[in-house]
Amino acid sequence: MFTGIVSTVGRIERVDPLGDGARLTIDSASLGLDDVGIGDSIAIQGACMTAVAIDGARFSVEVSRESLNRTTGLDRPGEVNLEKAMRLSDRVGGHLVSGHVDGLGRVVRFEEVGESWRLDLLVPAELSRYVAYKGSATVNGVSLTVNSVEDTADGTVISINLIPHTIQVTTLRLLRNGDRVNLEVDLIARYVERMLGELRASG
After folding, report:
1. Which of 72, 76, 155, 182 could connect to 46 by a Cys-Cys bridge, CB 3.0–4.6 Å?
2. Class of the 103-201 domain?
């Protein structure tokens, strides 16, 4: 489990073929790997991955073809948001994040507004029911608050306000209109849907 509070921005340095998947070598920057062991989880752009090798400030993960098909930003060198798995004693500064990417969103607007930035994302129709005004969403591993929700024929457009600090310390600053992003919807919303479905089924 994670909190969606990015610890640092690292960089994928190498992408080596591994069967039909890939092995990534990542410079963890200031993440700190002293307390990370082989088999531990690290979120990379919001996707939970398992460390299979550690060498100083670098670690490696193995990514399946399924994960590559369902995420963006893990198939090439570049900057990535990193977060180590949370401890049960940690503060949850963001929200509960599983690190399982639910789908890909698309940037439809990204612009500076006053001292902040406005980010509008098109959420695919199959995830629309999980987003709500003032609810939580994870974008490329960053826990964010949804400021508005507008249903369209193509899905749902959500609007998010990014403060300067978030822009400075995450890869969200690199986004451009049309870019794809990794989305994880609120975990609690999924459980609520499941429970309500069972109640309806039982009459």
Report:
1. 182
2. mainly beta
pLDDT band at 203 (very low <50, low <70, confident <90, very high): low
pLDDT at 92 (0 to 100):
81
For the chain, the three-class secondary structure string (H helix, E strand, C coil) is CECCCCCEEEEEEEEEEECCEEEEEEECCCCCCCCCCCCCEEEECCEEEEEEEEECCEEEEEECHHHHHHCCCCCCCEEEEEEECCCCCCCCCCCCECCCCCEEEEEEEEEEECCEEEEEEEEEHHHHHHCCCCCEEEECCEEEEEEEEEEECCEEEEEEEECHHHHHHCHHHHCCCCCEEEEEECHHHHHHHHHHHHHHHCC
The domain spans of the chain are: 8-84, 103-201
Q: pLDDT tens digits, residue range 51-108?
A: 999 999 999 999 999 999 999 999 999 999 999 999 887 888 888 899 999 999 999 9
Q: Which of the four CATH numbers 3.10.310.10, 3.40.50.1980, 2.60.40.1220, 2.40.30.20 does domain 8-84 have?
A: 2.40.30.20
- Write out the two tokens for 56: 């100083």
Q: What is the pLDDT of residue 84?
A: 97
Average pLDDT over every residue of 34-62: 97
What is the rounded distance in angstroms from the CA atom of residue 47 to the CA atom of residue 52?
A: 15
